[in-house]
Amino acid sequence: MPTALHLPRVLENALWAHARRDAPAECVGAIGGHERPDGLYAHALYPLPNIAPDPVRHYLADPGHLLRALRAMQAEGLSLVALYHSHPNGPATPSRTDTQLAAYSVPYLIADLRGGSLLAYLLPDGRAVEIVLGTT
Ligand SMILES: [Zn+2]
Q1: Which domain holds residue 71?
Q2: Which residues form the JAB1/MPN/MOV34 metalloenzyme domain (predicted)?
Q3: Model pTM score
């Protein structure tokens, strides 16, 4: 399992801009990049529509848009290295629902809009394991 995710500052800024734009609803998106021996390297951000019935409290990425993002990554020679969503009122830790519904083995980034912190977790088997998030 990856132990670190490297996120360029320009992508981090784009992620925060998306989170602010969608507030008070949660935002959701995918991140494409490369896996290297020392961790995952993010290269492109794919904002996705949040189609959860209650988007202020939950997120659900539009599956058609997610599929298109995955295809776009493939066309660019990238793979899915992370998923992100926001908690407009914090905290930057995964909710019970977040850990229960996590379907991918990639890191999940959570942006706490209130507190301004961004953290990354692996969410295997209903557990949350924080990993190193390096911004460069
Ligand atoms: Zn959440």
Answers
A1: 4-135
A2: 4-133
A3: 0.96
